[in-house]
Amino acid sequence: MAKFNYRLQSLLNVKNQLEDKTKNELAKQIAKLNEEKEKLESIYNQKDDCFLRITEESIKGTNIHTLKQYGSYLSLINSRLSRQRESVNSAVRDVDIHREKLIEISKEKKMLEMLKDKKLQQHLYNELQKEEKKTEEVVNYRYITAKS
To answer: Residue 8's CB: how many other CB atoms inside 10 A?
Structure first.
């Protein structure tokens, strides 16, 4: 039987490597997104703590100067929240971009694998046809030599 040789094997190998690389990049982007979400959650916790302290100070009875300081601190936390939300949104976009890239590469790889399977089936069919033809020739030769 002749050896099966897929002429697009090198391209398939490149797609496999590219898919692995893209999977790693996607994993890094997902880790970065989770990190950004944790930072956002931390800022929300700081804001909640600040509201809790304001409530406690108000119950105890505090002066206007302290409440203004808490107001400035809340303003600072709100601006940090705004920037962190942007960072989370940016990380989400990066994850989506890498996910789409991985889907596209996987589709191309799957198409090449399907083509390889099809070519392999055709190769096996052709080899079977050659085997049958040889067998038929041997049978005919034996039949002819047995008659003479």
So the answer is: 13
102 neighbors 22 (Cβ within 8 angstroms): yes
* 23: number of Cβ within 10 Å: 14
Question: Sign of the C-alpha dihedral, residues 24, 29, 32, 34?
Answer: negative
Could you report the per-residue pLDDT of 74-101, keeping only the tens digit for each? 999 999 999 999 999 999 999 999 999 9
* C-beta of residue 40 within 8 angstroms of C-beta of residue 91: no
The two structure tokens encoding residue 19: 């898919």
Q: Say how far apart CA 133 and CA 95 lie, in whole Å.
A: 56
Closest CA to 17 of 112, 109, 113: 109
Quote the tokens at residue 47: 């804001």
Q: How many beta carbons lie within 10 A of that of residue 33, not counting itself?
A: 18
